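Tip: read the tokens left to right.
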């Protein structure tokens, strides 16, 4: 049985005091519940250390939203795997569509980051997904296959045990448009079969594949009840404790 994992990607939102307030609120809500899933928060870098302290006695896990593939050196503005590990991160989001689109990250760069994260003991949440025009041109599977094959190039079967894949159709991110449960499930099945071909049936069965794209409390339950949807990567709806909680309770 795969465990479900709900991760909140705060993006470039919440300064330090706002971050602390959100996690304190979340702690109170989570405390009253018995949960069927793992919960990860991915705040901005500037809040990681303080939030690590705030979640120490809870089941919430911490993730960063990005990192660079080099260990250290003259890379102004970048953050290394060691740095995010040293402030309590267990996870790191890599290959998010906003990084691909706005910051021109390539599959090759994302592959280097995934390898570095794994070699340092971080668990990547590896994002893939097609744009609207690619879906309309019926090339969703080609796009997702390319991103996965290139992103995972050279990654061993053993390391695959520490990777989460997040399928996030770009047209559904922050737009309010969600893939229907059937549309999402179809791509999740495709991804799981692809992982089976690239690695093994056992790895394919075990890998957690999250869905992301305008997940909200009112659509989470149906999405998360699909056989191959093992959780959610949540943007907008994770910025308020009650809506993030509403998604968590949908598991
Ligand atoms: C995301 O950025 O990963 C995301 C899924 O955002 P939203 O939930 O706002 O669509």
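Filled-in amino acids:
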């Amino acid at each position: 049985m795969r465990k479900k994992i709900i991760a909140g990607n705060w993006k470039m939102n919440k300064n330090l005091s706002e971050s602390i307030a959100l996690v304190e609120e979340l702690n109170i809500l989570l405390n009253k519940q018995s949960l069927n899933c793992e919960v990860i928060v991915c705040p901005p870098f500037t809040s990681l250390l303080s939030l690590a302290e705030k979640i120490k006695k809870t089941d919430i896990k911490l993730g960063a939203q990005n990192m660079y593939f080099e260990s250290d050196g003259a890379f102004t503005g970048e953050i290394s795997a060691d740095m995010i590990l040293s402030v309590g991160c267990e996870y790191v989001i890599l290959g998010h569509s906003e990084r691909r689109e706005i910051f021109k990250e390539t599959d090759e760069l994302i592959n280097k980051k995934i390898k570095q994260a794994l070699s340092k003991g971080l668990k990547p949440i590896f994002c893939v997904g097609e744009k609207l025009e690619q879906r309309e041109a019926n090339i969703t599977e080609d796009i997702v296959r390319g991103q996965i094959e290139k992103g995972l190039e050279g990654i061993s079967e053993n390391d695959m045990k520490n990777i989460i894949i997040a399928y996030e159709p770009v047209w559904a991110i922050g737009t309010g448009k969600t893939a229907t449960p059937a549309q999402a499930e179809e791509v999740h099945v495709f991804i799981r079969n692809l992982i089976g071909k690239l690695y093994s049936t056992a790895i394919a069965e075990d890998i957690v594949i999250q869905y992301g794209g305008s997940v909200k409390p009112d659509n989470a339950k149906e999405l998360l009840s699909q056989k191959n949807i093992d959780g959610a990567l949540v943007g907008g709806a994770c910025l308020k404790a009650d809506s993030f909680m509403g998604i968590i309770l949908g598991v």
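Residues 181 and 222 are 7 Å apart (CA to CA). The chain has a mean pLDDT of 97.
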